[in-house]
Design brief:
Strand order of the largest sheet: 1-2-3-4-5
Number of domains: 2
Largest sheet: 5 strands, antiparallel
Shape: elongated
Radius of gyration: 20 Å
């Protein structure tokens, strides 16, 4: 599911931000399958080594997403509170939206980090541009709701 809303949050697949460390459920599942893979590899040595694929998938297949809430944005380990944002620089030609708190940027939304299932280059570009336009408009709407005095400029 690409765009889902849960408890006021909207989620999009996005390949940005540092990956989150595994939570307690994912960590427990990783260790349980690792112990199981060790046991299976001792019982059936050559074929049992394939059992290590499952814990590796659990460990390294971390979902990457952008979560937009009513007051803040979550992307990996990055958290941006909309009340702290002073300026938004939207550059449609380069496909970048920069959120600034003071003089330094606190988050950069990039068009090229949105995944797409298209195969042709023109379709890929069109899908990424459409997702970027949709997400940046929604993000700008939420920022203006939280702090109406935000300066929005186009670079």
């Amino acid at each position: 599911m690409e765009n889902t809303a849960t408890a006021g949050f909207i989620h999009w697949k996005y390949k940005g931000g540092a990956p989150l460390p595994p939570g307690p459920v994912r960590r427990a599942l990783f260790y349980a399958t690792l112990v199981l893979a060790l046991a299976v590899s001792f019982l059936a040595f050559p074929g049992g080594l394939l059992a290590f694929v499952i814990p590796l998938l659990i460990r390294f297949a971390v979902p990457r997403q952008l979560s937009l809430g009513p007051r803040y944005l979550l992307c990996g380990s990055d958290i941006v509170y909309f009340g702290n944002i002073d300026r938004v620089v939207l550059d449609e030609t380069r496909g970048r939206m920069t959120l600034q708190a003071g003089e330094r940027p606190c988050f950069v939304l990039e068009r090229d980090k949105f995944p797409t299932n298209a195969r042709k280059t023109d379709k890929i570009a069109a899908n990424k541009a459409a997702k970027f336009a949709k997400v940046s408009a929604k993000l700008l709407e939420r920022i203006r709701q939280a702090s109406p005095a935000v300066e929005v400029t186009g670079a």
